[in-house]
Amino acid sequence: MTMKEGEAPFVGDIVLEGSRIARIGPQLGEEADEVIHAEGMLAMPGLVNAHQHSPMSLLRGFSDDLKLMDWLNRKMLPAEARMTPEDVYWGAKLAMSEMIRSGTTAFADMYIHMNEIALAVQEAGMRASLTRGLVFLENDGGRRMREALDLAEKWHGGAEGRITVMIGPHAPYTCPPEPLREAIGLAERLKLPIHVHLAETKEEVAVLREKYGRTPTEYLHETGLFERVHVLLAHAVHLSERDIGLLAGMRGGIAHNPVSNLKLGCGIAPVSSMTGQGLVVGLGTDGAGSATTLDLFEEIKAAAWLQKLGREDPTALPALEALRMVTIGGAELLGIADKVGTLEPGKQADLLLVDLNKPHLRPVHSLESLLAYSANGADVDTTIVAGKVLMRNRRLLTLDEDEILRQASVRAARLVAGL
Ligand SMILES: CSC[C@H]1O[C@@H](n2cnc3c(O)ncnc32)[C@H](O)[C@@H]1O
Ligand SMILES: [Zn+2]
């Protein structure tokens, strides 16, 4: 399944040369140095997680069933204040083990100690867009901006081009006008995209109304942001029709995080209205500290079901559209759609083999329905990024999973002790 617009699934071969797809088509039957026989399997583009906080895998299940602000202020921020660069490194590796196992090949990450995440990405062999999250409520904003700049200088284009960097003002409610303008200015100067949370809860909308007399979207729009740079907006749950109009024509788009939104009771993002206005939508998990899973197959289902339920219309967000969101949609949000997101000659070989030899994946009336509504991450047999096999026959080849699990248990226990 190439995910190229209008191209039907076919039985065939994919020939890789180096990091790229050289040829793809029905039964090419070419000689090769190495052959993966994939009878009964389906090849598709790697999944793109368009928004998350990878080291929060260490906080999975530590604090559930709370409102967003209580969860963040009372639980996550105190645990994060204890995180060392080494904790972040091992938390990111834990997340990457889960992502590779469930077919994610690229992800957009916003967090702290980003140098350690970059090292982990380099070693794991994944593709990532990395962002130093910028919260400006305390007075060390200058140090954070310097860290964002250092990250860009050291890692943009790094790991053989698999790493790119964005500038990350965290959210309208944590970024007053002056530092927000500085962050946007930095992005413009470095020609980098912006990655920012937007309008996740009704409370956020009320806070912005009280502080600035504007919706969160109006607040960002007023800076000229959407005309100036490529923007990755995470969540965008509470947007009015007018807000959606303000985003029309933007470069970048929206990372929809349906499982996180469901679990935190945030609301249903107006995804169908956004796509109706021509906005690009991708899918993200958010951190495992809120969503508890990094399996994008869960997000595909949740995204489709939420739109169908919210609009009381089973035709809303059909299977193929959800699959396009999690592949080429995410690639567009990360600014790498020229490299990945579809299977076609010349693009990077970022792809998965999904094992269809399972009772819950038979019979094959519709591959797109099976993938969107019946498959899960454990059905992924093989994950390949830039032509390198990261998982084969469900065995991780670039990560030491036993060591990662050991490090994660010890470090997670220390982070949450007494909180
Ligand atoms: C400063 S790094 C990023 C920062 O974001 C926090 N975070 C995680 N999930 C969410 C969410 O759903 N909304 C807002 N902020 C979130 C994370 O804990 C880090 O502190
Ligand atoms: Zn987030």
Automatic annotation (TrEMBL):
InterPro entries: Amidohydro-rel, Deaminase_MtaD/DadD, Metal-dep_hydrolase_composite, Metal_Hydrolase, MTA/SAH_deaminase
Cofactor(s) needed by this chain: Zn(2+)
Cofactor note: Binds 1 zinc ion per subunit.
Domain Amidohydrolase-related: 43-389
Binding site for Zn(2+): 51, 53, 197, 286
Transmembrane segments: none
UniProt keyword Methyltransferase present: no
Listed Pfam families: Amidohydro_1 (PF01979)
Function: Catalyzes the deamination of 5-methylthioadenosine and S-adenosyl-L-homocysteine into 5-methylthioinosine and S-inosyl-L-homocysteine, respectively. Is also able to deaminate adenosine.
Protein family per UniProt: Belongs to the metallo-dependent hydrolases superfamily. MTA/SAH deaminase family.
Stated name of the protein: 5-methylthioadenosine/S-adenosylhomocysteine deaminase
Organism encoding this protein: Cohnella zeiphila
Lineage of the organism: Bacteria, Bacillati, Bacillota, Bacilli, Bacillales
Gene: mtaD
